[in-house]
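The pair is quoted verbatim below.
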Amino acid sequence: MRAIHQTPPATILLTKTINFRLAIICIAAASVGLSMAIISIAKLLLLICGLATLLVGQRARRVDKPPTAAYTPVAVLLAIFAFAISLLWTVAPQADALGSVAKYGKLLVIVLMISLIHDRREAMYALGAFVLAQFFLMASSWMLFFHLPVPWATSNMALTNNAVFSSYLDQGIMGAVLAAICWHFRSLAPGRYGRHLAVLVALVSLSNVLFVLSGRSGHVVAIALLSLAIMWELPKRYRAVVVLLPFLLALVLFFSSAKVRERLTQVRTEVQSYSTQTEPTTSSGIRLGLWRRAIQIMSQHPLAGSGVGSWSTEYNRLQREQNPAHKDITGSGNPHQEYLLWGVQLGIPGILIICGLMFSVLRDTLRMEKPYARAAQSALLALAVACLFNASLYDALIGDFFCVLIGLLLALGLSKTPNRAIAVPQNKPAT
C-alpha cells in the first residue's frame, strides 16, 4: 500500500530547491518594498518568465497546482480588454491613451503570479521575500525617525516625513498591510519564536504607520484593517460591533497619536475652507475639486466614458471653459480616486468593472483556509479603501505593490501543500 504524509507548514520551505523561475517570483515579491527602478526590472523579468512559460507550453501538470477555475484572472483580462477597446473612442492624445493602457497592464502581474507559482511551498518562499523587503522598508523608516543615516533612501520626503523610496502616503498604506499580513500569518511563522516575532513585527509596523508617518490614507487603511482583525477575534455574536470599531479606534488614536490628530484636524479645516476658496490649494480641497470635475465628466459620458487616458484632456477642457488662463495638467494626471478614474474613462460600466474585479478576488478568497483567506481579504480591503482617496491601481509603486501582493496571496491560498509520498512495499500473497 502507499502511505501519504502531509508536510507540516513550518517545514514546507525545506522540501525542494529554488529554481530560476521561483527566483524571479521572489525578486518580484521583494521588489515592491524597494525603489521604482527595481520594481520595473522585476516586472520585466516576471513578464519574460511568463512569456517563456507560455511559449514553451510544456509545464508539468501537478495535482497540487492552483485551481484553474479562479475568477480573478478572468476579471483582470476583462478589465484590460475594456481599457484597450476604449482606444476606439478615447478623446485623449494617442500617447496619453497608450500610456494609460500600459499603466493598467500591471494588472497582468496578478495573473502571472497565480500562473507561475506551482504550489504552496513556492508561494511561501515568495511571501518570505515580500515580508523581508517590507520589514527592511519599515526598519529604514524608523531609522530616519531616529535620525540615523539611511544612505539608500531616495525619496524627497526622507528627511521630512520618514519615507524611504516613495511618498509617506504609499509607505503608510504598505506598512498597514504588512502589519495585517504578519498578524494573520502569525500561526504559520516557522521557528520556536516565529509566532511572537510575527506579532512583534505587526505591532512595530502599525506603530510606524500611526505614530511616525503622516499619510492620512495610511491611517485610514490601518484603522480599517485593525477593525477587521479585531472583529475576526471576537465571538460571532459580538461581530456586529465592527460597525462602531473604526470610529472608536479613530477616537482613541486622535488622543494618543499626534500624527493622527494633526492630520484629522487638518482634513476638517481644509474641508470647511473648500467652499470659500475660488481655487483650492489644500490637499483635501484639491481632491474635492478633482472629484467634482470627475463626476461632471461622467455625467457627460455615462455609458462608455471618454476613453482610456482621457482624464487630463477632459479636465483641462472643463477648466478652460471656466478659466481661459488655465494651465493644462500633464497627461498622466488622475482625480486621486480610482473608482472615479475608471468612471471617467469607461463610464458607469467602468465603475462596475473595478467593483467586479474586487468581488472576483473576494470570491476566490472564500475558497481558502482561514489564515490565507483573512490575509487576502485584508489586502483587498486595504486596496478598496486606498482607492477611495488615491488612484492606487493606476499609480506606479503602490499599484505594483497591490498587484504583486494580491496575486501572491491568491496563489498561496488556492495552492495545496506539496505532499511527500513514502512508498511502503505491498505484501504479496503466497503462490
User: Anything to note?
Assistant: The CA atoms of residues 425 and 431 lie 17 Å apart.
